Amino acid sequence: MGLAITNKTLDKYFGFLRRLDNNSKKRLIIKLAESIETNDKGSSDLRNMFGAWEDSKDSDEIIRQIRESRVDSSNTEHF
User: Fold this and answer.
1) Does any domain span residue 18?
2) In this structure, what are the phi and psi dihedrals at residue 50, rounded to the nearest 5 degrees?
3) In sequence order, what are the residues at sequence separation of 6 or more whose Cβ sits closer than 8 angstroms to the Cβ of residue 24?
4) What is the pLDDT of residues 1-21, one digit of tens each?
5) Structural domain that includes position 18
6) Dihedral sign from CA coordinates of 69, 71, 75, 76
7) Left (φ > 0), alpha (ψ -120 to 50) or beta: where does 51 sit?
8) Is 72 helix (H, G, I), strand (E, B) or coil?
9) What single string gives the DSSP state of each residue in 27-55?
10) What is the domain count for the chain?
11) Residue 30 domain-assigned?
12) In a domain, 77, yes or no
């Protein structure tokens, strides 16, 4: 299932897109058609992007890396 938008939002997009030249409109139609085929396969389903963090490191190692990657803003050079 994809992101659904309202008719009002679609009308706003169409107001912009109808000003495109015919060649650009055809390319857009092709891209939209290809995205429908891709979505039918479920490969870009937004729900597939959620889940638990998976890593081979333990929590102490992750915390250590986060702390080491921090930048101290008081040590930055000013122009």
Assistant:
1) yes
2) -105, 150
3) none
4) 567 888 888 898 889 899 999
5) 7-71
6) positive
7) left
8) coil
9) HHHHHHHHHHHHHHTTTT-GGGG------
10) 1
11) yes
12) no
Condensed to tens digits (0 to 9), the pLDDT of residues 21-64 reads 999 999 999 999 998 876 555 555 666 677 776 778 888 998 99
Structure tokens at 31: 């891209």
Q: How far apart are CA 12 and CA 69, in angstroms?
A: 43
Place of tokens 């921090």: 70
Residue 74 has, within 13 A of its CA and on its CB side, a CA count of 0
CB 1 within 8 A of CB 45: yes
Looking at this protein, which amino acid is placed at residue 4? A
Single-letter code of the amino acid located at 46:
L
Distance between CA 38 and CA 46 in Å, rounded?
Answer: 13
